[in-house]
Amino acid sequence: MAITLTERAANHVQGFLAKRGKGMGLRLGVKTTGCSGLAYKLEYADAPNPEDVLFETNGVKVLVDPKSLPYIDGTELDFAREGLNEGFKFKNPNVKDECGCGESFNV
């Protein structure tokens, strides 16, 4: 089981945490929503929850709740700039289908 961040994503997270002045890492999970059933939840974490699974990649701690882990196991998180847009990109090997808008997925 593993969640990884590219170097570019890790640099973005580290820079944001430094600007924010607090936080231990990134919290990644899924929630039920959208056309296809699941959507990613991504937020900065100040402290771990007791049940969290911890991964560390490129110097960044990634916390995942155990219920989300089966849906995102093996995911690589990248940070991309495309024209005027920038944001995190999820490369999840478990995804079977995505909705047309790209906001949700199913496994």
The low-confidence parts are none
- Helix fraction? 10-25%
Oligomer: single chain
Shape annotation:
globular
Biggest sheet descriptor: 4 strands, mixed
Structural class: alpha/beta
Strand residue percentage: 35-45%
What do the pLDDT scores average to? 88
Rg, Å, rounded = 14 Å
SSE topology string = EHEEEEHEEEE
SS field, number of helical segments = 2
Q: What distance separates the N and C termini?
A: 16 Å
Largest beta sheet: what is the strand line-up? Answer: 3-2-5-4
The count of strands amounts to 9
Describe this structure in words.
The protein has helices at residues 7-20, 69-72, and strands at 4-5, 25-33, 37-45, 53-57, 60-64, 76-82, 85-91, 97-98, 105-106. It is an alpha/beta fold and 107 residues long. The longest helix is centred in the first third of the chain and has 14 residues, at 7-20.
